[in-house]
Amino acid sequence: MKEPARILVVGGGYVGMYTALRLQRKLKRELRHGEAQVIVVDPEPYMTYQPFLPEAAAGSISPRHVVVPLRRVLPDCTVVIGEATAIHHGKRTATVRTLATEEEGTGTVDIHYDELVLAPGSVSRALPVPGLAEFGIGFKTVEEAIGLRNHVLEQLDIASSTRDPDVRDAALTFVFVGGGYAGVEALGELEDMARYAVRYYHNIAPEDLKWILVEATDRILPEVGEEMGKYAVRELRGRNIDVRLETRLDSCVDRIAALSDGSRFPTRTLVWTAGVKPHPILAATDLPLNERGRLKCTAALQVDGAEHAWSAGDAASVPDLTADRPGTECAPNAQHAVRQAKVLAENVAAALAGQPLTDYEHKYAGSVASLGLHRGVAHVYGRKLKGYPAWFMHRVYHLSRVPTFNRKARVLAEWILSGLFKREIVSLGSLENPRAEFKLAADTGRHPGAS
């Protein structure tokens, strides 16, 4: 009996999940008859729709509706919860560490494949800033988003109950480093939430909160264009948010944010969103990388010079065929990633059938960004929008892009309910340490004399 064609998809994010979803449809008959097999490997059992992380942090969307369960949307694929630690494409083998191998103490397992789709995405790029590793907070996963929400609300509780003015000032100072989508949208949503929450604190006023955005370049939100970027700065500053351009974070030792302009801010909240870098698995392969550590790919999304290897999204350097200037690459964003995944899946299926491949070609449509509730900026198909229309477009666009009708309906229902009722301002920080209460009880039980 002929062995099934085995397609290994490393990564369950935008590219990984959408590629597997498309392959599941294209190869439906082959998968049902055992002629093909699609294996998806990812450390998490879900795909995170990252544009909704700021709203999840602000409480506008439930965290479970920001993620899409891989097993539910990929019933005809084999989902392996684990992490690829090395790729030996010459041998068509991926070395994977799973929860089971850790429990068994066997270390790793090798997965053999015929076609490889390498789509691990990117990871936060943390610079060697003193104190950053100890006190910085990331904003790339749903766990980080919810942890940040709980943290901000806890700072309000600390500020409300302390009698030490230094502790209070540090608790009410929030520093965000990075003026891209993640930093600006997270700051905008959380500032909105905190300003609403302080109405329930008898001794904190909105003007007591100090929000600082630090950006190393001379503009924020470069994707929406210079004019809309300047508008976003004016909008944020109009809300008493301190936007510091051409400024870097030099240190955050002892919870003091020291900036390159000489400013020093004692703070208990430092959010780092200053860019991403390629996933470390790319360096653990025998595939060609460019100078920035991304996979060199052709317009057909094949890894250049490596047959049977494919990539797209953050991990891939893909030529932009619509650009006026030769040598331009597609921007590593969600708009390209979702469209590339469709072409990638079509090409993998075509390669298996011995059919010609299709080049990826998409002219960038523009960008939308939220600056908090009912505020936003957009530059789409040459049209510039700001304020409520841009915010509304932001919601409509991302609602149309979030995978599955189930998620669309739940997100829409939550938006409607949040418009009818008051915000939730409860911190559930104890969720991050669910065994703390029981551990305390158990320790007290061992020492009955303790009070």
From TrEMBL:
Gene3D superfamilies associated with the record: 3.50.50.100
Gene Ontology molecular functions: oxidoreductase activity
Query: Recorded E.C. number(s)?
Result: 1.6.99.3
Group of enzyme by EC: oxidoreductase
Q: Which residues form the FAD/NAD(P)-binding domain?
A: 6-337
Q: Is S-adenosyl-L-methionine given among the entry's keywords?
A: no
| Keywords from the named record | FAD, Flavoprotein, NAD, Oxidoreductase
Protein's UniProt keywords contain Thylakoid: no
Cite the InterPro entries for this sequence.
FAD/NAD-bd_sf, FAD/NAD-binding_dom, NDH-2
Taxonomy, superkingdom: Bacteria
Report the family membership.
Answer: Belongs to the NADH dehydrogenase family.
| Name of the molecule in the record | NADH dehydrogenase
Q: Which organism is it from?
A: Streptomyces rapamycinicus
